[in-house]
Input
Amino acid sequence: MPFSSELITASGSLSKILLTSPDNARAEIYLHGAHLTSWIPAGGEEQLFLSRKSEFRPGAAIRGGVPIIFPQFSNLGLFMRHGFARITPWAFVDAEAVADNAVAATFQLRDSDATRKIWPYSFLAEFTATLSGQRLKMSFAVTNNDSNPFSFTSALHTYFRVTDVGKTVIENLRGVRYRDQVLGKDEVQSKASLKFNGEVNRIYFNAPPRLSLREGNRVTEIQATGFPDVVVWNPDAKNGAALSDLEPEGYRRFVCVEAAVIGMPVSLAPGES
Ligand code: TA6
Output
């Protein structure tokens, strides 16, 4: 079977690409934010959480899937919280067959009057989702098209779907220094497994490149290169209820594990990628 990609009109009249690999893995990516909202491995089930109360409209961020955070993570800087990439329409470039029986869909975002009002630089950002079998690969690249250098922070803010956050752990973070954003202080991970017994909002710096997300027998292997940090987030019941676009009890059904570059922002000279 060849791969397929189809552009359809979806929630909120926004457009999305339905992507299917030759071995029948599937993904959905909105042009709004180049936001991946669904990933179903071949013969498998949905791996990403998407809130039933999510907004789908220009200017708003989709709650769930994989928001692309660029050019600023959270409030850690002078610019817009979590950046503008997730609330801006991207261009779909193409979908093509690549090695290992996979299909790759590429999206681009360039600066505009609107983005330069928020962040005064000329740039090209490119997001590629590569899909086959049991694997989803996401690549994010930025080119400095400006005459001045710039720096940025970024994350692929992935909402992994779980059945019960209380039965979910993340493994392989022992010994890693983190900023606890709830307590506002730095700590070192002492336990082998990170559990979710309440609000968790942490930036792990220089984390190992491979982590596991485990719920019972179900294990998701997470691997990152070029993103040295990892953000782990779950809001808990109280903070989750305060999010207007999160469905009731929605906090139970996801854990965010985010490939991130925060501690050492990426600096690009003019022309560099
Ligand atoms: O990545 C964790 C985080 O920065 C949390 O602080 C939490 O607020 C989350 O992102 C979601 O942010 P959002 O702007 O999408 O509500």
User: Anything to note?
Assistant: The domain at 4-268 is CATH 2.70.98.10 (Beta-galactosidase; Chain A, domain 5). The pocket of 6-O-phosphono-beta-D-tagatofuranose is lined by residues 61, 74, 82, 157, 181, 201, 231, 233, 256, 258 (CB under 6 Å). The chain has a mean pLDDT of 97.
